[in-house]
Specification:
- The chain contains 16 helices and 21 strands.
- By secondary structure, it is an alpha/beta fold.
- The chain has 3 domains: 250 residues, 3-Layer(bba) Sandwich (FAD/NAD(P)-binding domain); 95 residues, Succinate dehydrogenase/fumarate reductase flavoprotein, catalytic domain (Flavocytochrome C3, Chain A, domain 1), CATH 3.90.700; 71 residues, Up-down Bundle (Methane Monooxygenase Hydroxylase, Chain G, domain 1).
- The strands form 7 sheets. Strands 5-2-1-9-18 form a 5-stranded parallel beta sheet, with helices on one face. It has a 4-stranded antiparallel beta sheet with strand order 12-16-15-14, covered by helices on one side. It has a 3-stranded antiparallel beta sheet with strand order 6-7-8.
- Strand 1, helix 1 and strand 2 form a beta-alpha-beta unit.
Length: 469
């Protein structure tokens, strides 16, 4: 087995496949460059006495605006309590209350507090810490660092191996069970909460391999990225609003009419509109008071580095590309339309999120689907390794500044026919020799094909949006 990517999904797959041998490839050092490491908000699971999986399912379906797959939602959400126990068994230390029970926070569009955290606002880093230790302690897992996969070999509709760039030269590995766990596409935009390296490499590989992609137009923009600089912006977690923070403008006036914890697509549009109208947008955290540094130590450090005291002054924020609901279309076994090519985590489109992801469902999906994919791959009898044809090493996958600017301008929070047509024309000229442009063209085509507004895909030229305005 070959696993491409060492975030939560990739490592959960590797651990679940044991004792079957697996090669875990990561483009950098293990733990570096994974969006999982950056995740602040937490992981959602209905474990409280006042909660139930049916409520979590209903919240997920509502956030997805009718485009979730109900069967997938039920399967993944029901596995939530079990996966929390599995993560704890791997050594994850979730925060607990004084009486020893798991502490549960509230986030946008959840009707119950069900968000578990690790080290306050460093949940992703805590999960990654534990999983990396478990991976290193598992003899069946061979970690191959600094191996950037550039090509997936396919023969007669079946994945048969990969070609990667390494410091020692090209590396060809033959295997008929391959998992993409490469993360998202935030790095395709000028403003993102993802690592700048997250430019959709897994989607580019899948696209070149002939795998079906789906729901590409649904890109979630987080409403509260720290509005300082460009590129990879620091996230101000939704959990901050769960503790009482509210949106204000430069005059100190609230503009969300009490809906500060509305679904992300709603809040991101409101913040974007306010910025477009010439206002500034801030998150007023002063009501949290001295508890802020204890509850959100990582965010407090981010603010301090920026010269902001969140106890006494509001935090400047802006929407930024955060999560891709679309991706490689997979079935219930997390397998793509190419036999033997699997996908899990943000790179996959399982049907859980629909048109808009519910807060803190991403780590949940990554852990569960990564585990499940690893189990399926391990259960399949491996075919004899095939010899791979010689192939020159393809050029690195990069996102040029002009591409990021184009995506931000025409495929951001608000879209329209004119902008999408301009994007498609420009991308068509770039796509022949640029994998990132080919992927962006597919995203633009999907956005143009969906003429109505739903979830994270908002058309300013949609008649219903004009009436609402």
């Amino acid at each position: 087995m070959i696993i491409i990517g060492a975030g939560v999904a990739g490592m959960m797959a590797a651990l679940a496949s044991a004792p079957a041998p697996v090669r875990l490839l990561t483009a950098g050092k293990i733990g570096e460059g994974a969006a999982s490491q950056w995740s602040q908000g937490g992981i959602a699971a209905a474990i409280g006495a006042d909660d139930h999986v049916d409520l979590h399912i209903a919240d997920t379906l509502a956030a997805g605006h009718g485009l979730c797959d109900p069967t997938v939602v039920s399967r993944i959400i029901k596995a939530g309590p079990e996966i929390i126990a599995t993560l704890e068994a791997y050594g994850v230390r979730f925060d607990r209350t004084e009486d020893g029970t798991l502490a549960r926070g509230l986030e946008a569009a959840h009707r119950r507090p069900r968000i578990l955290h690790g080290n306050g606002d460093a949940t992703g880093a805590e999960i990654m810490r534990a999983l990396m230790a478990a991976v290193r302690a598992t003899p069946s897992i061979q970690v191959i660092e600094q191996a950037a996969v550039r090509h997936i070999f396919v023969e007669e509709g079946r994945a048969i191996g990969v070609l990667a760039a390494t410091p020692g030269g090209p590396l060809s590995l033959a295997d008929d069970q391959i998992l993409l766990a490469t993360g998202g596409i935030g790095g395709l935009f000028a403003y993102s909460t993802n690592p700048e390296s997250a430019i959709g490499q897994g989607l580019m590989l899948a696209q070149a391999a002939g795998a079906k992609l789906a729901d590409l137009e649904f890109i979630q923009f987080h409403p509260t990225a720290l509005a300082i600089g460009t590129g990879a912006l620091k996230l101000i977690s939704e959990a901050v609003r769960g503790e009482g923070a509210v949106f204000i403008d430069e005059t100190g006036t609230r503009f969300m009419d009490g809906a500060d914890l509305a679904p992300r697509d709603v809040v991101a549009r409101a913040a974007f509109d306010h910025l477009q109208a010439g206002h500034q947008v801030f998150l007023d955290t002063t009501s949290i008071g001295a508890r802020f540094a204890t509850r959100f130590p990582a965010i407090a450090a981010i603010c301090a580095q920026a010269g902001i005291d969140p106890v006494r002054q509001p935090i400047p924020v802006r929407p930024a590309a955060h999560y891709h609901m679309g991706g490689v279309a997979v079935d219930a076994q997390n397998e793509s339309s190419v036999t033997g090519l699997f996908a899990a985590g943000e790179v996959a489109r399982t049907g859980l999120h629909g048109a808009n992801r519910l807060a803190s469902n991403s780590l949940l999906e990554a852990a569960i689907c990564g585990r499940d994919a690893g189990r399926v791959m391990a259960e399949r009898a491996a075919r004899p390794a095939r010899s791979l044809p010689p192939l020159p090493l393809p050029a690195p996958m990069i996102a040029r500044p002009a591409l990021r600017d184009l995506m931000t301008r025409h495929l951001g929070v608000l879209r329209d026919a004119h902008g999408l047509a301009a994007a498609r024309a420009a991308l068509s000229r770039m796509a022949s020799d640029d994998p990132a442009a080919r992927l962006c063209l597919a995203i633009a085509e999907a956005a143009a094909a969906r003429t109505d507004s739903v979830g994270a895909h908002t058309r300013r030229d949609d008649a219903s949006m004009r009436r609402a305005a």
